[in-house]
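Appendix B, record 7
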Amino acid sequence: MNSAAHDDSPCPIWARPDAFPEAPSGWGWVDHKGRRNVCDSQQQLIKAISEDSDARVILAWTPETPRMVLPEEVPGAIAAVLTSRKRTAGADLTEAQDRLRWFGFLLGGLGVYLFYQGWVHAPETSSRALFAARVIFNSASVGVMLLMFLIFAFIPWYQARKRLRDYAHWSANDVAAAVPVLRFETWLEAQKAPVTRLMFGLIAIVGLAQLLPGDSLRAAALVKPAYHGGEWWRLFTAPFLHGHPVHFMMNAAALLYLGKRMEVFARWPHVPLVFLFAACVGGEASARFMTATSVGASGGLMGWLGFLLVFESLHGSLVPRSSRRRLLAGVLLTALIGLVGYRFIDNAAHAGGLLAGMLYAAIVFPKSSSPNRPDSTLPDRIAGAAAIAVLSAAAAFAVMRMVSQG
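C-alpha cells (predicted):
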C-alpha cells in the first residue's frame, strides 16, 4: 500500500497559486520553450495574446499577479484569448482538411489499384468483382492505410472542427470554466519524467537495432511456436520490438503521454512495474489466443492506460473530471482501431494489458478523497528499481539477439 500524500493542502498541486513560477515585474509572457518576452504595457500583452497564431503564449504575468498565470487568467484578456483560440483552431482545421484529402486520396488510390489487381487475376470460377473486393478486404496495406487515415487525418480533423465550433459560442464564463483543465495540462506538460524518458530510450535503442540486417522478429519477437517450445524470454523482449515505423511512432507518442502522467501522479516506481506486469500478462494472453507473431509495447502501454483509468477514478480530487475523459476516449479509440485492424492488431495483448493495469491500480492504491499525490514507499522504490533492471536487461538481450543473427 502507498501512504496518503506529501502534505495537507486542500487543493491539487496544479491548482495552487505556487503551481507556476514567480512573476517578474511588469508585463510579459512565456512561450513553450520557456523564453520570456517582456511587454511595455497591459495593452501590448493583450495584443500579443490576441495575435498568437500557434499557441505560443503558454503563461503570462502582470503587476497584479505574483505568479505566472494562463493567458485566460490575465485581466481583460478574455476577448483576446478567444480571438487567438479561434485563429489557432481555424489553422488546425485547414491543416487537418489537407491531410484528410491526401490520406483519402492515397487510401482511395490503393483501393482502386488492389481492386484492379484482383479483377485481373481473379480465377475464372469466381466472380471478378467479389474476388477483387476480397483482395481489398484482406489486404494488410489497406488496413494500415485506414488506420493512418483515422489517426493522422480524420480524428485531428474532427477535433479541430469541434474546437472551432465550440469557440464560436464561447463566452467569458466558458473560458473561466475551462481554466482548471488548462492549468492541469499546462502544469503537467512542464513536469519532468526521467523514468518515462528512460523507457522511451529503451524502445528507441531496440528500434535502431531492428534496422540492422537480419530477421529481428525471428530473433526476439513473441514467435508463438518458439515461446511454447520453451523460449520464455520472448515474453520480455517482444515489447521492445515494433513491426514498422508507424507502429513505433504511435507507441512512442502513447508512451510519452501516458508514462509522464503516471510518473507525475502515481510516482516513478509504478511506471516500470505496471509496464512489466501488463506486458507479460498481455503477452501471455496473446500466446494463448493468437497464433501470429507479436511485437510492440502496446500491452504495457494499455496497462498504463488501464492503471490511470482506475487510479484517477480512485483519486477523483487529484485531476479534473473532464481531463479523465481523455483516458476513456483512449480506450474507446484503441477498441475502434482494434476493430478496424483486427487482422494484424493483437487485441488479446491489448485486452490483457488493459485488465492487468486496472487490477494493479485497484490492488495497490486505496480509494482516497485527498487532492494530493500519493507518496512512494521504500518497498515501492526497491521494486521499481528491480523492474527497471529487468526491462533494461530484456532490451539489451533483444539487441544482442538481433546483432548475433544479423
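Remarks on this record: Residues 82-171 form one domain. The first strand starts at residue 27 and ends at 30.
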